[in-house]
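User: Hi! Is it possible to get a structure for several chains at once, not just one? Here's what I have:
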Amino acid sequence: MAKIGVFICHCGENVAAKIDCTQLTAAIGEHPGVAVSVEYKYFCSDPGQESVKKAIREHGLTGVVVAACSPRMHEATFRNACAEAGLNPYLCEIANIREHCSWVHTDKDMATIKALEITRSLVEKVKRNNELRPIEVPVTRRALVIGGGIAGIQAALDIANAGHEVVLVEREASLGGHMAQLSETFPTLDCSQCIMTPRMVEAARHPKIRLLTYAEIERVEGYIGNFKVKVRMKSRSVDMKKCTGCGDCMLKCPVKKISSEFDCGLGKRAAIYTPFAQSVPNIPVIDKKRCTYFKNGKCQICSKSCPINAIDFTIEDEFLDIEIGAIVVATGFQIQNTAMYGEYGYGKYADVITGLQFERLASASGPTSGKILRPSDNSEPQTVVFIQCAGSRDPSKGVRYCSKICCMYTAKHAMLYAHKVHGGKTHIFYMDIRAGGKGYDEFTRRAIEEDEASYVRGRVSKVWQENGRLMVRGVDTLLGRPVEVAADMVVLATAIIAQPDAKEFAKTVGIGYDEYGFYNEAHLKLRPVESSTAGIYLAGCCQSPKDIPDSVAQASATASKVLALFSKEQLEREPVVASNNEATCAGCWGCVLACPYGAIEQKDILDRSGRLIKRVASVNPGLCQGCGTCVTFCRSNSIDLAGFTERQIFAEVMGL
Amino acid sequence: MSIVEQYRTKVKELLSSGQVKMVIGYGAGTTPDRRRPLFMRSPEDADKMLLDNACIANLSGYLVSEGLLSDEKRVAIMLRPEGVRSINILAAESQLKAEQIVIVGFDTAGEELRAIEGSEAKDFCALIDSLKESAPLQAPDPLFERIVQMSPQERFNYWQEEFSKCIKCYACRQSCPMCYCRRCIVDSNQPQWINTSSHTLGNFEWNIVRAFHLAGRCVACGNCDRSCPVNIPLRFINRRMGMEVLEVFDHFPGMSESQEPVLASFKKDDPETFIL
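Assistant: Yes, the chains can be modeled jointly so their relative placement is included. Here is the combined structure:
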């Protein structure tokens, strides 16, 4: 015989204002199987939880229904309380009479009736609840970090410093990512490379970190604690064991006029190259698309110039299979191609550049050794116009979202320019100055007050060339009049966008993404660094545009998640997983296709002599996330979900 | 030689050469205008075989009878084009292997009985492709048009009246090649989602659930409709669902044995973020 305890929470006035809790308590007390029903102001408080525990012990309850707020809020709280009182936590259910009732209704009588129905429905469900035990899965204590930018490096270092093995995979020839390209960083103006390169070297030298550069993830299989990852080591055509990084090959290579990706097209590189001088590892790769030997079969000058014969054109791509327990995705971002704004003339006028190109100009290791020079004639610009939101917050041509870092780096650019070109003039066209962050608003004020950045609130409608200068026409919305500025250089604060292959990559790894290609977190506020797939975490700009402090903080957060996972040998999983009735399964495999987590496999049923009798579906509880998609698909009703069984749902519906 | 004679010769050859262990075809029924399935195991059985415009039942459902295909021996079956599509769906849903089935194709569309070339499901791809192209223009039916024109309330009332005749005999299920589940959802009683008693609610539940289970799988063979003892025009429900699936998902069931079931498959680049 069921002995259900019902605990009706006032939630202060949140519930009690719209629901007559005393009436509800009395009415549900009459319901068959309800042994005790009580009301209280805050059941989630300590004395509230104690009273639930006491009732379980005193009445020998077989199930508990807490009629309160959303199970999102306090299901875990009350399930823990039940467990402490000796009742299996899965025999506790939450009837949501706050979000689903009191908050959305005004008529108290009607709301009380509805609250009674909701509670009754959960009482009927809990009568049919079963005791469930957590599922234990073994954990491989080795992490994979995908992406060798600042976020990936930080996550790898944090995990490795805690004593666990890390495989750090970077698809470019060197670690560094976008941060290595930057000049000085806001709000402290410390040199980006000066703070970045020690981290790169530390990661490369760390005994617990296995660094795989010029490598890509081919395939990810398995589940939390037990991933199997295939990595493609792209052939560098340079023997990494032999090469000393002397750089002779790069100097001798006859193909020298390739526009450098690292310098955003402002510098040149050879066909055999390292992306930048401080590359880690300092071992070049051959750009096979541009290399004369790979194109025509002749040349090999690099090979001849190499003093230790490290160049080997026959090296092919290699594949590594690695067992991994947790994955940190830190694949970064790209910037939008601003050529879509025909009116700004990017791509047409050499002196209209992007913010990232300005970073290269301002960088001491950049193509101009840190001098701000016009790409068209190498002269020093006397007036520079910055256009903010050149792509961001523009649903018609660019992207709808704010790229978050542009207000800050534009202020920084104006400042760097003022420091480098004395007497130079800056005009910044902006929509809003978004400078939320420690020291950020002070920083933009400094740009305005000390470095005389002239902010013009308004958009630019057109940039055109006249007498060797760039004419910028915009509007000053605060003065309400058009503005025209003759500039020597125009810098566009381009939008941060997801990597061009972000969606494809999400499918390879098995995580969700939004309409823009940024990866989805499990919960924007409460689980911001977890992806929707257990055991895969997100760090840096692959999740959303963010600055360096945020990327680093998020990377450390993923490390803490990974370390928590690695803290035990066995991993406990929620037992809310599907299972299949093999006797009634028709073997149509609809569930196998429908499962978004690849958790359902085909299983052969054999007789004693090993002959195949039939094939049925079988759910891997380690992979199953309990979403229930297979349950809704199964025509023969063979699949059931623990904690939400057909019988429970039916009772819940009938209880309404 | 008439088509019937040609097919008898073909059947005899298939059986006497041992290429197949059985040929499923049509024999005489209880009245002159009716045909019933004929299971031919020896060449002599072929003499009882008939083939004419009355051979309209889709026999493919017999192939999934328990144990028939488990010895891996081949079985031949006489099918119209929609029957071939059924074979493709059954193969796609792993109920049979398409290469185990020898198809003796014919078509009764129009007045004249025609033979169709091909011996395995994959030989009929071009034919099925052309069926997809013409699917939306299928023979108009005045009653169907009338139902489509009705307001939702009128349509609800119409079906309520039709379903009130249902006696829950499940002949529709038994005759449908797609209803191969070992245990039908209606026979599952823990819990009893579908009320088995023959009243309006239970009848609605049964017929609507069956329509949903056939969405993207029905080939409009008409077996359910013909087998219904109380003449509920079941084909219209399934035809409407079929139109919907074609329009929304561009899915025409039974195109090939590798076609993914429309309601079970999803595309990872589907912009609907709720999937993951």
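The mean pLDDT of chain B is 90. Residues 3-134 of chain B form one domain.

User: Great, thank you!
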